[in-house]
Amino acid sequence: MRQELMSLPKTLAEDVARNLVMVAKLLDDEPEQAYQYARVALRLASRVAAVREAAGFASYAVGKYSEALAEFRAARRMTGNSDLWPVMADCERGMGRPERALAMAGEPEVQKLDRAGQVEMRMVAAGARRDMGQADAAVVTLQSPELASHSIQPWTARLRYAYADALLAVGREDEAREWFAKALEADQGGTTDASDRLAELDGVEFVDALDPEQEADDGLKPVAEPKAEEAEVEEPEVEEAEVEEAEADAEPEADAEPEAVEPAVEELQSDEEPEDAEDEGQDDDAEDSAEDVEPTKAEARSEDQAGLPEKDGDDS
User: Fold this and answer.
1) Listed residue (82, 87, 130) closest to 107, CA to CA
2) The model's pTM
3) 140-174 per-position pLDDT tens digit
4) 58 FRET partner, CA 20 to 30 A, in 70, 153, 264, 283?
5) How far is the C-alpha of 69 from the C-alpha of 84, rounded, in Å?
6) Long-range contacts of 99-105 (CB under 8 A, 24+ apart)
7) Largest CA distance in the chain
8) How far, in Å, CA of 162 to CA of 168, rounded?
């Protein structure tokens, strides 16, 4: 790539290089931005094979398979090598043409690929089989010496993962779990989600403890303290109800006493009224008459007592 850029004017070469660096930096995590940088580089130097290849991978990352295939074909024409053959076949799959991808897997260009390229082509062919509804054939396609090897290569994790996924598609769940575990062992850079697939098969669900939305939901849920407060609020209500019932029971008794006393007083007053009272006004003075009677009786007793000594004196 450096030699290709050296053929460009210095300022232009620097601009193209900066854009290609950004494509490589953002391709995995932010493919949309990588795609934009690739388009800029493509406008600046469309006759540079490295630029066409970078533009192809950026388009492939955002799912623009038709654009990606065009850029890969252009880069292949410029360089004459077959390194891009597997990804070109996968673009055919992305465009909904798995039969063409499968046909490319049988082309002579596959024999020109290195071992990593051949493994990649095998995985693309297995994917094409699954796209065509041939799940069992996909499992057979992935069975190879590279899959059985115990050595760890850059492509080992992805190959084992693809095989585990193919096994799961045909209902061989126990074998799929075994190969997902093997893929996880070989996945040094975390290129697959084998751990998540294992957890899914085991029925394990992960919850992000630092999820702010989850914490907000938990904060809205009632806990033991509000229930205790509700209990404290209910107790005074019960006591007040008991007090009201007690007061309700006590009030009739208090009201009954005056009703029982008043008739007795009226009877006493009626007995103490003078029989020869002629006016209605004398009825109002009944209490005064009763008070006059009591002193009269007391005076009579005092007179009797006063007369006794006189009688004793006379006898003597």
Assistant:
1) 82
2) 0.64
3) 999 999 999 999 999 999 999 999 999 999 999 99
4) 153
5) 10
6) 99/128, 99/132, 101/125, 101/127, 101/128, 102/128, 102/129, 102/132
7) 177
8) 10
